[in-house]
Amino acid sequence: MEIPLVIDPNDYRWQLLGKILKVFEMRKTKKIIAKFSQIKTAINCIKITLTSMFFSTKISHVVEELKRREDLREFLRIKEEEVPKEGYVYALLSRFDLKSFIAMILRILNSITKKRGRNFKLIIDCTDVSVDVNWFRNPVKQRDLEGKITGATQRRDCLWA
Question: Which domain does 105 fall in, by range?
């Protein structure tokens, strides 16, 4: 069973994903994507793919959650009738070869960033960082966590502010 995608406006991951998804609403970005694929369906598929990558889940799970949850559709700005099937998302992604996909992403990045000087370099780190919070190797079960609020979740706002 997959974890449901519940939007938390105070969570830093949802805030960052919201800022990234706003880039796909820009006219410049839509023009770039239109050169590579059909614009509306491609943008929806890229939003679904980014969401699945952001929360380390399957694309099919994100599509199921979009069909079920109205608040997630509002957050991603995808209408109910525009939610693509997971097979279509995979088919669209398979149409891109590596060079064309990288070219599209670099054009989008260049269009939204400020003009840089001649010797200025932009480094983008897209590695997935996994954090092991079970330092003492005590097994924690879901039923043990129900109804408990730990100090770590209370201090979360201080850590990520």
Answer: 12-112
Q: 26-75 pLDDT, tens per residue?
A: 888 888 888 877 777 888 888 998 888 888 888 899 999 999 999 999 99
The Cα–Cα gap between 128 and 125 comes to 9
* Overall domain count for the chain: 1
- Scan for tokens 């330092």, then name that residue: 135
Residue 8 near residue 66, CB atoms below 8 Å: no
| SS3 sequence of the chain | CCCCCCCCCCCHHHHHHHHHHHHCCCHHHHHHHHHHCCHHHHHHHHHHHHHHHHCCCCHHHHHHHHHHCHHHHHHHCCCHHHCCCHHHHHHHHHHCCHHHHHHHHHHHHHHHCCCCCCCCCCCCCCCCCCCCCCCCCCCCCHHHHCCCCCHHHHCHHHHHC
Flag whether 7 is in a domain: no
Q: Max alpha carbon distance in the chain (Å)?
A: 57
Q: Would 16 be classed as within a structural domain?
A: yes
